[in-house]
Structure formats: structure tokens, C-alpha cells
């Protein structure tokens, strides 16, 4: 029985799952960044990434090649994220958390509508930074693109980790997120560190979108919505305040979705999404703060 | 404000609300009455959400799915089991109440965003489940009571006979939804003033403290979910009638649940009057946004901008704005000029 | 009274009767005034389905063009389309508003199957024409006895699937067919039509893989189809997923013979698919087509497409030149104008219904040459012809004669 399993096929599904998981992970870390900075899940994170992708596409239509467009888009997204926080989020800083969350919902509608308003609805193609030619390693077929996506996602997250761990600015941001009042006392400009968090999150989102668009073959105004759903699920699975958890959770989710879609036929492809969410729920019931989350110690 | 004045003010507002509901149709066109009836459904659902999120602090992203359960209960009972649509309304509430209770079970272990994910999963799964069990639900085509149970669809043919008088269907639906809404709002008001409400608020403010004061957290948390489920079920049931006796999975995608939360927060959690405003907002703001421009995508831009604007200008919601306006006005009654 | 006076009196009475009947027709028909006909409809302008909103924009642009050239019997056509977010409960509200407050003459070009199902009973009850429903469900043409005020426009999905089935029976009788279909009435109708067209040979279908429109990708479905050794792939999916099926098949090193449904076969979609997979992957794909594809270089000098472009430039800011949904909208609008011209000098709802069930339109510039838009009281499928086409060297090539799709 054991040997009848098509191990090459499973390996292929796992790699493909890691590839989509890498995209979810990038967006999930963005969600965690904003959660730690502002205390909410940014409902608009996916749509912002979508707008970044459309921006990059427009740049390529005007003659830029992929990597220059990518770099420029990252810069613009970073600046855009900072601007967004200062203009829209900062005014509701002291408000109840749900208010801020609903502001992000408003941004979601706004960004989605803007994309349909500005760009035509036909599907578009984003050039792939990596070749999609299938290669074979140890008898299993992968594409370089899959491996490239995994690589870029992990690289982005690793760079971020290095930033937070080893730079003064990163330390300041961590401090501000943990204890804004004390941080202010040490001279940290908390407001701007929060804005910086939004900028980094927007840049990460742009990376996610620019990886996803070529890997899906085409993209349109709605392509980031399922990705946001899975990023949210992956981040929660991993523990909403843990970037490492977000990465691990998203990768697991990506692999799981692929495997359950391929091998469990009774679930049917129409129930794949709910089934994955149900499994995450089951995990949460066992570990209510997620895989790597810290169970909140409640002060009495 | 002094308690006496508060109560008097509250009664005044309630009386004004009732009068408004009774009198409005005279000035409304038939189509407007239908739109207000739909807002009435949202009002009831948001009332339930308010009890849950505003008073016990538990987040639900799944109330659209609870509405769907109420809606399909009504549709199935009317189409396949010979019941008149009106009699199914309380039954729909009860079925959704049970679903709300089940939805509340994860709440015993999860909180905050983790709970939000659980309810979110429920909302996302609902259309898929509705399509899967197509034998019961009619699948993609949905259930059309107009075709399948015309005689049991009250008012489907244009008018309803009430107390010997003939009332236009949309006026009837308007009275039905807002009438039930006012009754349920009154019930919510009583609930909140009573022991249940105090327990809810204690849970929201500090679960540990509440537990150590003898409040059975598990019981009250799931009770809150169940009660808000009941409200959502009634709302869903009325939604079918208001939607021309037609129900379809396409009306219950996740964005319905999201819209209800928007309505609750824009309206102002914790404020009953705010819930009415929130319901009117989610019913009419998208239409007004569409009137500004009918380029594809433009309505969403203006609707989204409206949401952001309202939240920035009134962070505690429209109800909170009303309250502070009310206090600003009435506090002058008590300032003594030195 | 003597005979002479009596005759005059009688003549005056008749004249009065005629005059009052004429003005009754003109003034009591909702939506029709002396210089305007108001039609309305709903379309998704928000949410994911706003991608299809061009169906309304194309029609609107065409009406503006017609109005600039005198309108219909001196009346201009005003087309009011509003957002329903693709939610049937919104569709009902908006439609009720249009009928009762705006007093539209007819509902036109409303998009979607569930959305139109939601308003069909209401419109038929009030005897408001529900014209040229923008949906490929076959019920609009099939159930006209129950809903005489409703009529569709495009070839039904079921009929399209049947064409592929019959073609396979004729040319690939030993195929191993796999179907990727969207799990809603659109995909299921295509599948059902395919099975009908295959007739006794439905067992040629060895695997059916459904997907939900909210899914992110169809990788696993494609993998499963490949594992069942399918050699003929039916892609009953919307453009995003159709493109994915090509790219994932290539990634798996699988090159089946592909039938791609008309919704996803516009030339620009196939060229994106070729980029996403490879030229070899899309080579040989088969589809049907009934509209002129504005991205196909073959129509570069075609009068219909030139007209299409000039109308969009003048009335739509030059946007949407590559969007085939705009062509659809213009085609439906053309047919509506045609019907209005045959509804009498003072159209009524009944007269326009009569006109749309007696269409015989051979000069629609937006459909393929040779296709006539035709209906009879027992055939309520206006566009019921198409051509089979094969994708070769990056272009669609028609082959065979017109096929009946209805």
C-alpha cells in the first residue's frame, strides 16, 4: 500500500503548495505587521497589493522591463502605505479597534472600485520574472517559477526579520508596538514608526501581488481577494502576532489546500475552501492562540 | 444627564420612532417603501449583531450566513411544507438561533481575531453549502416562492388585506419589518437594562473579573450568540419576502456579513438608534454612490469613501454622534449661569 | 337627422376615436413620450462582476449614436442602467424602482442568471417586457409560454455545449473527454449541453472536475484530469480559470486537445493564455463565435468594427476598444433599435413584444457575416447561429459553415 502512493506526484503537489503558500505568507506577514502596529487586520491589504500590481503592469506597458518596474512599484507602494496611514488611519488612532477595522473595510471597497474604474476589465498578463519551463529534479517535475516564488517570498520575509532584529529603526518599531507610551518617553516617534509599518506592509503586499500575478497566468481586479482570505487564515493559524507563525501557517495552508484538492475527492473542489478553513478552526480549538501565538495573559 | 430626564428622553425618542414608522408611507413611493423594508431587515440583523459585539465584545463576521439560514428556512418551509410565509418567521428565528448557538461554541475557546476567523469561515462556507445541498435549497437557481408557493406568499400579488383594509404589498412589508424591528429593539433594550445586559457588559469589560463575580462566562457567551442568531434569522426570513419571495445563494456571499458589521459600527455599537441609522446607511449609501457615477467601479469608490469619512468624523458611529449631540444640547439645560 | 349629416357625424366620431386611440397609445404607455423612449436595466457596477459592466456601456454608446442620427421615429432612446452588485435582492429593488418610479418602457440587457430569475415573475406579472436578458441560460428562450414577456439574446450555454458534443462524435469518436466546469448554472449548462450533444456517447467523458468561482486556482483539477488520461479537455470556465487550465497543463507537461467556451475565447484572452503557457499549448483549440472580435486583425477593415471603434471613441472616451463585451452590448442595442422600428410609430409594450418575437435581422454589423438575428413566436432564441473556429498560429480561423445554436 505504502509504495503504491505516487511520491513524485505528492512531491510535486507539495512544491506547488509551498509556492502558493509563499505568496500567502508574504501577504500574511504584511497583515501581522499592521496588526502589531495598529491592532487591526487590514481588510484592504489585498486590494492595495492589487493596485500595486496594476501599477507595475502599467509601467511594463510603458516600456519598463520587469525588474525595474518591480523596484519602482515597491518604492511607490512603500510611500503609499506611509501616506495612507498618516492620512486615513492616524485620525482614528484613539478610536475603538472596530472603528479602525471598518475604516480598512471602507478602503477595501474604495481600492477595488478604483481599480475597475481606472483599468479595463479584461484579463491581463504580467511577465514572469522566472521561467515557467518545467524542470525535473529527482524525477519530480517542478517549474523554476515555483521555486523562484518560494525564494522571493522567503527572502522578503527574511530581510524584514533582519531589519527588525538588527537595526535601530526596527528595534524602535518593535518597542513602539509593544508599549507605545514607554517608547514615547524614550524619544521614539511612535506615530511615524506606525506609518513605517504600514509602508513596509504595503511593500510586502506589492511583492505578493507581483509574485502571484505571473504564477496565476493572468490577473484582473479581483485576483488578490482569495489570496487575502488565505493570508488571513494562515496568519491566524500561525498566531496573529507572530510573523514566523504567519509564514509557517501560510506555507502549511498552501500545501494543505493543494493536497486536499488533489487527493480528497469527497470534499469536492467546491468545498475545498470551507474544508481548509474548518481544519484551521480545528487546530485553533486545540491551540486557541495559533501555532506560535502567545496566549494572552489576562491581567485581572 | 439625570436618570429621570434620560428615561423621558428615551420614551420621547421611542414614541417619535413609532410615529415615524406609522406615518412615513404616506409620503413614500411604493419603491421607496420596499427599500425601507429592506433596510428594516438589516436593522433587525444589526440589532442582533449589536447585542453580540457591542455588549459582549465578541466579533462575528458570519451574520450574513445566519441571515441566510433564516431566509432558507422560510423559503423551504413555505415552498415544500405548506406553511404560510408569515408563520415561518418565528421558526426561521429559532433555527438561526440554534445555528447561532453552534457558531458560538468556538467562542468558548477562541476570542478576538481567532473568533472572527471562525465566524468568517462560516460565512465563506455558506454559499458553497447552499449550492451543494441543492435538493433542499434549489442550488444555484435558488427558491422562487412566487412560482412555487404563490398562494402562501402574503402579498405577492400586489396587496394584502389587513383588518378589512387593502394595503399595498410594499407598504405592508415596510410595516412588517419595522414593526417587528421596533418590537425587537424594545426587547433588546429591556435585555440590556436587565440582568442579562449587565452580565454581557461585565464579560465585555473583563471576562476574568466577571467570572470571579459569578457570571457563567460560557453560558452567557453562547447565549449572546444564540440571541443574535435569532435576530439574524428573523431578518433573513423577512429578507425573502422583501426580495420578491426569491432566495438565492448569490445574495449571501461574505460581503453580506461584512456589510452588516459595517452597518453596526457605522451606526454605532451600543446605540439602538444608531442601529437604525446604520441599517439606513448600508441600504441607501450604495445607491447614492451609484447615482454619483455609473462608471463600473465608481459606486464602490464612493461607498468606500463614505464609510471612511463617517468613521473619521464619527469614530463612535452615528449613534455615538447622536448621543454626544443630545448631551451637548441637554447639558445646557443644567448649566447654571453663575 | 338626414343621411349627409349622419355620415359627417359618423366620420367625425371615427376620427375622434382614431385620434384618442393614437394618443392613448402614446401617452399611456409608460416610458414613451413624444421625444423619448426610456428603457432601464441593472448591471453589476460594483464587486467582482463589474468586469461584465461593459455589456451595458457598449449598448449605451450605441444608443447615443442612434440618437445622434435621429433616433427611432424621432424619439431618442434613454438607457438607464443601475448597479445591483450582482445580488438578486438588489436587482429586485432597483428594478422595482425603475419600473415604478422611473416608469421604464421595458427592462433591457440586465446581466446575470440569478438576477434575472429574481425579477422575471415580477416583470411578467406587470407585463413589462424583459428584453434581451444578458445571460446564456436556456430558460429565457425555453420557458416563454410561462413567461411571455421575457426573451434572451445570446446562444444558450446548453446549445453551445451540444455543438461541441456533436462535433466530437463526428470527428473524435474515441476521445477521452475531461471537463473543467464552473460549479454554477453557467458551467453546469455547458456540461449538460455537452452530454446532450454526445448523445449515446456520454461515456466518452471520463472525468468532470468542478471549481467554484471563488477558488483561487484550478491546479488540482487539472492535475486530476491529467491523471485520468484525458486527451480532450473541455474548458467550461471563465477567462481567469481558462487561462490557468492552459498554464497548469503545460506545467504538468500535458497537452490535450482543448475546447474552450465562447465566454473565454476572445483573441486577447487566448494570447494571454499563450504567454502564460506556450504557443503550442493553445494551438488547435476549438471554440464557437458569433460576435466580431475587435482584437482579431481579420476585422481591421470591417465596417461593423470600424463603426464599433468610432462609436466608442465618440461616446465612451475611446475606452474599451478591445473589450468584446462592448461588442455584445452594441449588438443587443442594435437589435432593440431594430425591434423598436418594427413596433409601430407609437410603440407599446405589446407591440415591442410582438416585434421581438418576429425578428428577421440580417444586417447586424456586430455579429458574424451571415448570421441573422431571428425569432418566431415559437423560437425565442434571437442569436442562434455561430461558427466553429480553431486557434492556429496565434489567430482564430473559422471553419465549416454556420452551425445552429438553439
How would you describe this structure to a colleague?
The complex is a heterotrimer of chains A (300), B (338) and C (406). Chain A has helices at residues 7-38, 45-61, 66-89, 97-118, 144-166, 168-178, 180-185, 190-216, 224-238, 243-263, 272-286; strands at 134-137, 140-143. Chain A has 300 residues and is mainly α. Chain A has a domain at 19-223. Chain B has 15 helices and 4 strands. In chain B, helix 3 packs parallel to helix 5. The model of chain B has no long low-confidence stretch (mean pLDDT 88). Chain C has 406 residues and is an alpha/beta fold. Helices cover 44% and strands 18% of the residues of chain C. Chain C is built from 14 helices and 14 strands. At the A-B interface, helix 4, helix 9 and helix 11 of A face helix 5, helix 10, helix 12 and helix 14 of B.
Distance between the termini of chain A: 55 Å
State mean pLDDT of chain A (0 to 100 scale).
Answer: 86
Radius of gyration of chain C: 23 Å
Element order, helices and strands of chain C? HEHEHEHEHEHEHEHEHEHHEHHHEEEE
Number of strands of chain A: 2
Count of domains of chain C: 2
- Average of per-residue pLDDT values of chain C: 91
CATH class of the largest domain in chain C: Alpha Beta
- Strand arrangement, largest sheet of chain A? 1-2
Please outline what is shown here.
The complex is a heterotrimer of chains A (300), B (338) and C (406). Chain B is mainly alpha-helical and 338 residues long. Chain B has helices at 3-23, 30-56, 63-80, 88-104, 112-132, 134-137, 145-148, 169-193, 195-205, 207-212, 217-242, 254-267, 272-292, 298-313, 317-331; strands at 143-144, 159-162, 165-168, 246-247.
Amino acid at each position: 500500500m505504502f509504495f503504491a502512493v505516487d511520491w513524485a506526484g505528492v512531491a510535486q503537489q507539495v512544491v506547488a503548495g509551498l509556492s502558493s503558500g509563499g505568496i500567502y505568507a508574504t501577504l500574511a506577514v504584511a497583515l501581522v505587521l499592521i496588526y502589531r502596529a495598529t491592532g487591526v487586520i487590514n481588510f484592504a491589504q489585498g486590494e492595495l497589493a492589487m493596485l500595486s500590481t496594476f501599477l507595475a503592469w502599467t509601467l511594463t506597458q510603458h516600456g519598463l522591463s520587469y525588474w525595474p518596474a518591480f523596484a519602482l512599484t515597491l518604492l511607490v507602494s512603500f510611500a503609499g502605505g506611509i501616506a495612507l496611514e498618516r492620512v486615513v488611519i492616524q485620525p482614528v488612532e484613539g478610536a475603538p479597534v472596530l472603528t479602525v477595522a471598518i475604516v480598512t473595510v471602507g478602503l477595501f471597497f474604495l481600492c477595488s472600485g478604483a481599480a475597475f474604474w481606472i483599468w479595463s476589465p479584461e484579463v491581463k498578463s504580467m511577465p514572469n520574472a522566472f521561467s515557467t519551463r518545467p524542470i525535473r529534479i529527482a524525477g519530480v517535475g517542478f517549474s523554476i517559477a515555483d521555486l523562484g516564488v518560494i525564494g522571493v517570498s522567503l527572502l522578503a520575509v527574511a530581510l524584514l526579520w533582519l531589519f527588525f532584529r538588527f537595526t535601530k529603526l526596527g528595534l524602535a518599531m518593535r518597542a513602539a508596538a509593544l508599549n507605545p507610551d514607554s517608547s514615547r518617553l524614550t524619544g521614539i516617534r511612535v506615530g511615524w514608526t506606525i506609518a513605517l509599518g504600514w509602508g513596509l506592509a504595503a511593500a510586502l503586499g506589492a511583492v505578493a501581488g507581483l509574485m502571484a500575478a505571473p504564477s496565476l497566468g493572468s490577473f484582473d481586479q479581483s485576483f488578490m481577494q482569495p489570496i487575502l482570505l488565505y493570508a488571513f487564515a494562515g496568519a491566524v493559524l500561525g498566531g496573529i502576532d507572530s510573523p514566523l507563525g504567519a509564514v509557517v501557517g501560510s506555507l502549511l495552508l498552501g500545501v494543505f489546500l493543494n493536497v486536499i484538492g488533489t487527493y480528497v475527492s469527497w470534499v469536492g473542489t467546491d468545498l475545498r475552501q470551507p474544508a481548509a478553513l474548518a481544519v484551521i478552526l480545528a487546530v485553533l480549538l486545540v491551540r486557541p492562540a495559533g501555532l506560535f501565538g502567545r496566549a494572552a495573559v489576562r491581567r485581572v | 444627564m439625570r436618570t429621570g430626564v434620560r428615561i423621558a428622553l428615551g420614551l420621547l425618542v421611542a414614541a417619535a420612532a413609532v410615529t415615524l414608522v406609522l406615518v412615513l408611507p404616506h409620503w413614500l413611493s411604493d419603491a421607496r417603501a420596499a427599500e425601507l423594508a429592506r433596510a428594516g431587515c438589516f436593522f433587525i440583523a444589526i440589532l442582533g449583531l449589536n447585542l453580540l459585539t457591542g455588549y459582549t465584545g465578541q466579533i462575528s463576521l458570519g451574520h450574513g450566513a445566519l441571515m441566510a439560514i433564516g431566509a432558507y428556512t422560510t423559503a423551504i418551509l413555505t415552498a415544500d411544507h405548506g406553511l404560510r410565509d408569515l408563520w415561518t418567521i418565528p421558526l426561521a428565528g429559532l433555527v438561526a438561533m440554534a445555528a447561532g448557538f453552534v457558531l458560538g461554541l468556538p467562542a468558548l475557546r477562541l476570542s478576538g481575531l481567532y473568533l472572527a476567523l471562525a465566524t468568517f469561515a462560516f460565512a465563506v462556507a455558506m454559499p458553497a453549502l447552499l449550492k451543494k445541498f441543492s435538493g433542499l435549497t434549489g442550488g444555484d437557481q435558488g427558491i422562487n416562492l412566487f412560482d412555487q408557493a404563490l398562494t402562501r406568499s402574503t402579498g405577492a400579488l400586489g396587496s394584502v388585506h389587513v383588518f378589512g383594509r387593502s394595503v399595498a404589498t410594499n407598504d405592508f412589508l415596510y410595516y412588517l419589518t419595522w414593526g417587528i424591528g421596533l418590537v425587537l429593539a424594545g426587547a433588546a433594550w429591556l435585555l440590556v437594562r436587565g440582568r442579562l445586559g449587565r452580565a454581557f457588559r461585565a464579560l465585555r469589560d473583563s471576562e476574568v473579573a466577571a467570572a470571579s463575580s459569578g457570571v457563567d462566562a460560557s453560558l452567557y457567551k453562547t447565549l449572546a450568540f444564540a440571541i443574535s442568531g435569532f435576530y439574524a434569522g428573523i431578518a433573513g426570513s423577512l429578507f425573502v419576502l422583501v426580495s420578491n419571495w426569491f432566495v438565492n445563494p448569490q445574495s449571501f456571499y461574505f460581503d453580506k456579513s461584512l456589510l452588516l458589521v459595517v452597518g453596526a459600527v457605522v451606526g454605532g455599537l451600543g446605540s439602538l438608534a444608531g442601529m437604525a441609522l446604520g441599517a439606513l446607511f448600508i441600504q441607501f449609501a450604495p445607491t447614492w454612490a451609484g447615482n454619483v457615477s455609473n462608471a463600473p467601479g465608481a459606486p464602490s469608490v464612493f461607498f468606500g469613501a463614505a464609510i471612511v469619512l463617517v468613521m473619521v468624523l464619527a469614530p463612535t458611529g452615528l449613534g455615538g454622534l447622536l448621543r454626544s449631540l443630545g448631551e451637548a444640547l441637554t447639558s445646557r439645560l443644567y448649566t447654571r449661569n453663575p | 337627422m338626414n343621411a349627409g349629416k349622419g355620415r359627417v357625424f359618423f366620420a367625425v366620431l371615427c376620427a375622434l376615436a382614431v385620434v384618442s386611440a393614437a394618443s392613448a397609445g402614446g401617452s399611456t404607455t409608460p416610458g414613451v413620450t413624444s421625444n423619448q423612449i426610456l428603457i432601464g436595466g441593472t448591471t453589476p457596477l460594483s464587486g467582482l462582476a463589474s468586469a461584465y459592466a461593459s455589456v451595458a456601456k457598449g449598448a449605451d454608446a450605441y444608443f447615443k449614436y442612434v440618437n445622434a442620427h435621429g433616433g427611432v421615429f424621432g424619439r431618442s432612446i434613454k438607457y438607464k442602467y443601475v448597479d445591483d452588485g450582482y445580488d438578486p435582492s438588489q436587482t429586485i429593488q432597483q428594478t422595482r424602482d425603475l419600473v415604478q418610479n422611473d416608469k421604464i418602457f421595458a427592462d433591457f440587457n440586465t446581466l446575470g442568471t440569478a438576477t434575472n430569475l429574481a425579477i422575471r415573475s415580477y416583470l411578467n406579472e406587470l407585463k413589462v417586457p424583459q428584453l434581451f436578458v444578458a445571460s446564456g441560460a436556456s430558460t429565457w428562450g425555453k420557458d416563454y409560454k410561462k413567461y411571455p414577456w421575457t426573451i434572451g439574446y445570446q446562444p444558450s450555454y446548453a446549445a453551445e455545449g451540444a455543438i461541441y458534443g456533436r462535433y466530437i462524435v463526428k470527428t473524435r469518436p474515441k476521445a477521452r473527454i475531461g471537463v473543467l466546469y464552473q460549479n454554477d448554472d453557467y458551467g453546469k449548462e455547458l456540461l449538460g449541453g455537452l452530454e446532450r450533444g454526445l448523445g449515446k456517447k456520454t461515456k466518452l467523458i471520463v472525468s468532470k472536475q468542478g471549481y467554484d468561482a471563488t477558488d483561487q486556482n484550478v491546479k488540482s483539477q487539472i492535475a486530476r484530469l491529467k491523471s485520468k488520461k484525458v486527451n480532450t479537455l473541455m474548458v467550461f470556465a471563465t477567462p481567469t480559470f481558462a487561462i490557468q487550465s492552459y498554464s497548469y497543463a503545460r506545467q504538468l507537461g500535458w497537452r490535450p486537445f482543448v475546447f474552450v467556451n465562447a465566454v473565454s475565447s476572445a483573441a486577447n484572452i487566448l494570447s494571454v493564455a499563450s504567454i502564460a503557457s506556450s504557443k503550442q499549448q493553445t494551438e488547435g483549440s476549438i471554440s464557437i463565435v458569433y460576435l466580431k472580435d475587435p482584437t482579431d486583425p481579420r476585422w481591421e477593415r470591417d465596417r461593423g468594427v470600424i463603426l464599433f471603434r468610432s462609436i466608442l471613441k465618440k461616446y465612451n472616451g475611446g475606452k474599451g476598444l478591445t473589450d468584446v463585451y462592448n461588442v455584445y452590448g452594441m449588438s443587443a442595442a442594435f437589435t432593440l433599435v431594430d425591434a423598436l422600428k418594427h413596433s409601430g410609430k407609437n410603440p407599446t409594450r405589446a407591440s415591442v413584444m410582438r416585434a421581438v418575437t418576429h425578428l428577421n435581422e440580417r444586417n447586424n454589423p456586430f455579429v458574424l457575416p451571415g448570421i441573422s438575428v431571428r425569432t418566431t413566436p415559437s423560437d425565442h432564441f434571437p442569436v442562434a447561429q455561430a461558427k466553429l473556429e480553431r486557434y492556429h498560429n496565434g489567430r482564430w480561423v473559422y471553419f465549416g459553415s454556420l452551425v445552429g445554436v438553439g
